[in-house]
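Example complex used in Figure S2.
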Amino acid sequence: MAEPYQRQSALAHLGLAARAAADREKSDAGVQLGERAFPGQLNLRGDPGNEEFMDAASGTVDCVLPTVPNTSAGEDDLEEGPRVLWLAPVEWLIVTAAGAEEALAGELVAAAAGCGGSVTDVSDARTVIVLQGPNARDVLMKGCPLDLHPDVFRPGHCAQSLLARAAVILYRRADEADGSASFEIHVTRSFADYLWVWLEDAAGEYGVQVIEV
Amino acid sequence: MRPQRMRLASGGRIDRTRPLSFSFDGTRYQGFAGDTLASALMANGVRRVGRSFKLHRFRGIFSAGAEEPNAIVQLESGPRTVPNLRATQVELYDGLSAASVNAWPSLAVDFLAINSLFAPLLPAGFYYKTFMWPKPLWHACEGMIRRAAGLGRAPMDPDPDTYDHLHAHCDVLVVGGGPTGLAAALRAGRTGARVIIADEQNELGGQLLNNRQQVDGSLGADWVATACEEFVGTANVRVLTRTTAFGHYEHNHVALLERRTDHLGPGVDGVRQRLWKVRAKQVVLAAGAYERPIVFRNNDRPGVMLASAAAAYVNRYAVRPGQRAVVFTNNDSGYAAAADLADGGVPVAAIVDARLEAGDDAAALAAVRDIEVLNGFAVVDVKGRRQVAGADVSILNDEGAATGGSARTIGCDLLAVSGGWNPCVHLHCHSGGKLDFDSDWACFVPGRTPLASRAAGAAAGVFELAACLESGFEAGARAARAAGIKRRGRARKAPAAERNSPAPARRLFHVPSLKRGGEAKAFVDLQYDVTAADISLAAREGYESVEHVKRYTTLGMATDQGKTSNVAGLAILSGVLGRPIPEVGTTTFRPPYTAVTYGALAGRDVGDFADPVRKTPMHHWHVAAGAKFEDVGQWKRPWYYPRADESMQEAVNRECLAARNTIGVLDASTLGKIDIQGRDTVTFLNRVYTNTWDSLAVGRSRYGLMCGEDGMIFDDGVTTRLGDHHYLMTTTSGGAARVMSWLEEWLQTEWPELDVRLTSVTEQWASAGLCGPGARRLMDDLSEDLPLDSEALPFMAMAEGRVAEIPARVFRISFSGEVSFEINVAARYGMALWNALMTAGEKYGITPYGTEAMHVLRAEKGYIIAGQETDGTVTPIDLGLERMVSKKKDFIGKRSLSRSDTAREDRKQLVGLLTEDESEVLPEGAQIVAEPRPMPPMEMIGHVTSSYYSANVGRSIALALIRSGRSRVGEYVFAPLPGKRVMARVVEPVFFDPEGGRLHG
Amino acid sequence: MLLITCPWCGPRDEIEFSCGGEAHITRPSEPEALTDEAWADYLFNRTNPKGPHAERWVHTHGCRRWFNVLRNTATNEILAVYEMGKPRPDGEGS
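Predicted assembly (1308 residues):
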């Protein structure tokens, strides 16, 4: 196995850990930004009309695969288990805690391949930027055409769209303790640097705190 | 500082405790917070604020809003200067500096005012007629004319300010915050609907801030304050002030420009302007109406002003717009303005009413103030050159012509004019809304629209306050309901205002002059000096369509886009043509409603954000190594890695030699990669590639060509079979997204029965390509579990194992003609792999090479690049790739290869070119001729697609597409270049190792 | 900018979509059997109506699904959104 120290997340060059340490005492920021590095991400295909497949896949990921567009199922806290995002009528993104994807991929293939399911590991294809705080939604509105009103795009909802000039998968987590919204932005690795810098720029007027995720 | 001699001692929505100093055309003045530049100038008694565009006549403040044609200024200087702003909309801030735009060298001494003496020589179409012939005359004079035309100056330096975009969604968007808009927003807001109300001014209220009408028993402005309080307490209503809705597009996409810091002056921190991209379920257009002028001789003299504007200056800004006024009107609203002027300390010498009778309430306003009313009269001319000194009046006959009867001159310095009202229909028209003609008011009102949008109040042709409030309230309720809001909300009674008993307006747009030739000074379009005479002339010369008249006379084409002039112009045209106004038609309104800065349109998409830069996992190594980068799509790819003072050619030579003599390594991460799974994958590959895929074994790779249905090469790449029903396709770097969506399109739209799933894994993998004689040795050093010899891992095979401890897929594919290993690892390990290769390869002389060397290496072998050798007109056969084209099966594009055009013998074909002078490198794109001539025209038979100096071959090489090229091998062709002509021999397109022995090592 | 209702993801801005041109043009099952003219007609000729037009769209930056849209080219009104393979809902042109 490759040594973990050889790994580099998409935003490794930005020195976010040091910045997070420096920002730790910051309390007046309207926006918090951080990178959730190495999230497990599996692309799952299958026919939702095929009960055998649905049973096999749902059993493996511990939740019923969501079939309502733009919704998710499973765990908000990935340490508790995987989260499944609806991507398309025949496509889901299974998000796991870092490192949990490999075993799960094996189990999924074993369970679902026989009934028309297929699995592709895309954990390295995207990184996840966490965006939260009282002005998180304002920042997203600057670059995303979705209706992100709190009653419309609710916790647990997800959507694929554009944010600035990058294609993203957006997921709204459970609200923060202070009631402010929290989002996870899946962005393709090569666009991550662009998007992070853009987010910091767009959030500038609200104050930015870099956080450790 | 001089006193503000025209300022009223009390009243107005200005803050006398906050004086602000400003300068106009170099002179310093003082105004107050709450002033516009126009009201502050007026308070200081400044009456002449500009010169007209063509004739350079003095012009004064004409309006109090967006329709202003005269008071056009250049604000500030340097990189933040803004041209062509309306002084009536520029909020005053401390230190403001502005200048009039159309005067040179100064407003007072304008050399070009001499133009007005030649006015008879500058009729409609002057420039067209004068410069039609000879042509060079226009070129000689254009610069001078344009400078004289002077419509503001664009800043020459980069814009230092920050701009922003914001996407917003709502149930109901209310455009305009006057009484109608407020009533609509109140009503819609009470249902719980998500409401945005936008107004271009610094505060909501619209006309209620300008006049003294009452709503629900209190002064209008106080009622506005109550409404605003209700909004503050309502989370679902968002109020945007200083925000102009400038475009109304398909499906209720409305663009708003919010000016956030302009009113604070230049250089304020933060976002200067924000462009709101609103998607509204329903739109209520409550943008109000413009008062329209009446055209008469010398109606452009400073001191002639719209009546409602004169009242606004008194009521809102506490400024006297003159010392003694005459009000000229054809409707009742002139009386209210007269009353406001009189009460504000501007004696009204007379109301000149074109009608024989005014409404009772209007008449009473004049009577109680003892203002003389001249019924059935019109103003026919204006006394005074530098400003209004008096109004010549005369009796009007039934046809609307002045008779000259009872003529007299009334002394005044303010001539307030009301010619009725034009609903502000701009936004309604932006997306295909039709206009109807209201013959009572002789104005255009909104008709059908394809959008979920409704006009209300004055914007819909409802001009009385009580009716506006009801109209807005009703529109708000209907809009919320139409947006799907079920709740009806409390307080269902509309705000109330006093009902008057108005008398109808008299249709009067133009009072013909009593003087011969007087029409040449009766201005319709004040900014572009278009006169009643110009319009008549255009009609006489045969320009009958309003669109033609507009372009011929420039009517309505100035920065104000004819907001005060279009309807009057139409009416005059209709009179000349003897056709009713609705038959003459109206010109098209297009966005933007008022000018929008480029900065706001660009938003944050400037500088580094103009286009995203995509970076590979090894990017920062390349940066540290001093690589020069090349843009490939949005990717930054290392182009070459110069050492010390190497030139580009020297670096590329070194890299190319290393790749063939020791080891070269290339960051190939940008190649498109598509994971393909499903039982029908082979069938699918057979249909999208020109060659066959039935026999490909697991662990083996094959090169494939893709064509469009037109038979032209679309993309190429290597596909590897990973498992029984599992393949990995690679595409060109630039074509990755295009190929992915192309394949998905065929699967979903033509072949839904195929069991095939595509997943883009371009970004999942980092890829390093090793090539050269030392490559296998280095692989051997770094890997324990991989088979590396030619038998276990032959050319076009793939194996999985570990490289430098990292799980990897290793492909024996080559784009250089050397023994190659393309190592794919998960992107997180890309940098680790690269570092390991560089460290372990050092002793073998490993050399990173960039895209330039890659291009040279492949050209030496005659390998094509889709997009370089191909341009959408090239078939596989043109490139000599017949062997790639299956005869047995159908595939996308196959039928097209036998079309008469694609089957021609004399198509352009790929060949090599060797210049006679071995050091001469032809420019890519150079045209090729068979028979050179000293001068064009020459028959061009092809062009150079790739051209390099090759260090490995020791001379220049080129690839070209040349007509019947393959039959010309051995012949000489020519490239005519600037100052020379290069001779080259046509050869087979392979320059290095033609037998291909090195590939297998 | 159009607002297009993706049959799966719901109403989204036009920037998330790409237009794939006229709908209901089926690839001939035996291209080799076609004359050059018939093939060229399939390849190049498209209707260009003022009024209702059936066209294919794909939700590029969303679920990547293709679907059909019946759009009035003069007013941009979207009259119907329907699945691939389904007939044109106004019964025209198919």
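The mean pLDDT of chain B is 93. DSSP finds 23 helices and 49 strands in chain B.
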